[in-house]
Amino acid sequence: MLESLSIRNYVLIDKLDLEFSEGFSAITGETGSGKSILLGALSLILGAKADKEAIRKGENSAEVAAVFLSSSPAVISWLDAHDALGDDGEIIIRRSMKMSGRSSYTVNGIPVSRKEGEELGSLLVDISSQHAHQLLLRPGVYVSMVDEAAGNGALADAYRSVYSELREISAERERIAGEMAKSAEEKDYITYCLGELDSADLKVGEEECIRARLDIINSAESLRESMQIAMDELKNGTAALSEALSVLFKAGRKDQELQQLAQRLEPVSIDADDILLTLRSHLSAIEYSEEELDALNARLSVIQKMKRRFGGSVESAIAKRDEYRERLRVIDDGDDMLAGLDKRISMLSTELASSADALSASRKKTASDLAMRIEGTLHNLGMAGAAFRITVEHAYFGPDGADTVSFLIAPNKGEKLSPVQNTASGGELSRILLAIKASAGEQGGPETMLFDEIDAGLGGSSANAVGDELRKLSEDCQIIAITHLPQIAVRADSHYLVEKRTAEGRTVSSVRKIEGKEREKETARLLSGSTSGISLEHARSLLEVQY
């Protein structure tokens, strides 16, 4: 349950610390007083997107924090998986945002992503907004409602896993079959091109090596002449160095300094000899034949041709060669590949059908029981003659199974059952949604349920019935209702008033718990818009009936 909510610098709220208790809490206030701001702050805690525009004007940051207590196995499992287990089931969630755009989100001090926070939030609080009943106008949500009531999470996940894999493999089969058909038409052309590319045997960097060799050949005469002159000079020089070295070594036997000079000269002589040998070797490498020149030019021509035909570079030509090989492989091996995929598709189809059957069986079993509970709740909500049915019919395989789920209602006795989206009024939709929430509550779920003006469009005895149902529901979980109806507010265990005032030239929204005379005055305002003697007396009598 939600124990406390703390807000700093959020929209019109500068500072707010609010304590909540078990049971049924009602929140009321004038239109525009800030009830939606309170809901927005709590939604941030539960994973809603943060907007820096919500930071109070003139401030650099805003923060919302909440403390929950929970013994739910699903919540404990989530906390354990995220290393965020607290003491005695306490959960402290903080959400801050700055004008710079930076924000933080922590659970018991552990940073989490918004998506992770949203996951935890859905386990802690079930929010029904004032327009939530409009979901009932979209039949696509009925499947998820029945699955939630049936506890079909694991079954649905198993089905979706098989469904997703089957779609992927089917798409791959379609792709390969398309490639086979396309490639078969072009097989002769592909084979011819691949033969050229294979014959060319292209290698990255080969062209550069050929051009470097041709540059040497084209400069061979001048290089040879220069090298010959250098070699002739080195021959004379190395002979002179050798003679000088011999003389110095002999003299060095008598003069230590000459011995050192000979030692210094020796590596110079060795280097000169080595350079001469290297020049002779390089001179041989410069030599070429007309056959080599013709072969190099021919090879260069082949490379240029392949580049022109297949993408403008050696790399693109090699990539094209690999592509052609794969396409021919698909043609040659495609039948075997398709046979393998067909076998896998057949296995998955069988598994999908089995999984869908399991889902359908669970839904049908739950649908009957759930419809009976919803119908009973609707009777308690002032729709005494209403009949409610849930049908589960076989349909095409889709992301959520092979069922079409319909909610049917006959609002009055003797009327024909018709789809909810075609028959129910706005007030009836609100009561149907409450009945569904009440029935789901019996199956387990979040320990806190928040209703934001779900009573819209109701009045009189219907409002009384909704108030009674909310109070009854609060016996099993914490109920927080934002309402504008006195029939709802007086049935709450705790009453909170949202007010808007001006302080130091600025508008400020605040929320406080009211009791006694203050609660009587607010109930009177809800009744007639004023706090006259008659409305106060009526408010007092309503509150006395409840307590």
Task: Report on this structure.
58% of the residues lie in helices and 19% in strands. With 547 residues, the protein is an alpha/beta fold. It has a domain at 1-128 and 493-506: 3-Layer(aba) Sandwich (Rossmann fold), CATH 3.40.50. It has a six-stranded antiparallel β-sheet with strand order 2-1-4-5-6-7, covered by helices on one side. Helix 4 crosses helix 11, helix 6 crosses helix 11 (314-380) and helix 11 (314-380) crosses helix 13 (426-442). The radius of gyration is 43 Å and the shape is elongated. The mean pLDDT is 86.
- What is the fold named in CATH at topology level of the domain at 1-128 and 493-506? Rossmann fold
The top level CATH class name of the domain at 1-128 and 493-506: Alpha Beta
Major sheet characteristics: 6 strands, antiparallel
Specify the number of helices.
Answer: 17
Helix content: 55-70%
Shape: elongated
Query: What is the H level of CATH, i.e. the homologous superfamily of the domain at 1-128 and 493-506?
Result: P-loop containing nucleotide triphosphate hydrolases
| Regions with little confidence, pLDDT below 50 for 5+ residues | none
What is the second-level CATH architecture of the domain at 1-128 and 493-506?
3-Layer(aba) Sandwich
The whole-angstrom Rg is 43 Å
- pLDDT averaged residue by residue: 86
Task: For the record, give the distance between the C-alpha atoms at the N and C termini, rounded to a whole number.
Answer: 24 Å
Helix vs. strand class: alpha/beta
| DSSP E strands, number | 15
Largest beta sheet: strand ordering: 2-1-4-5-6-7
SS strand fraction = 15-25%
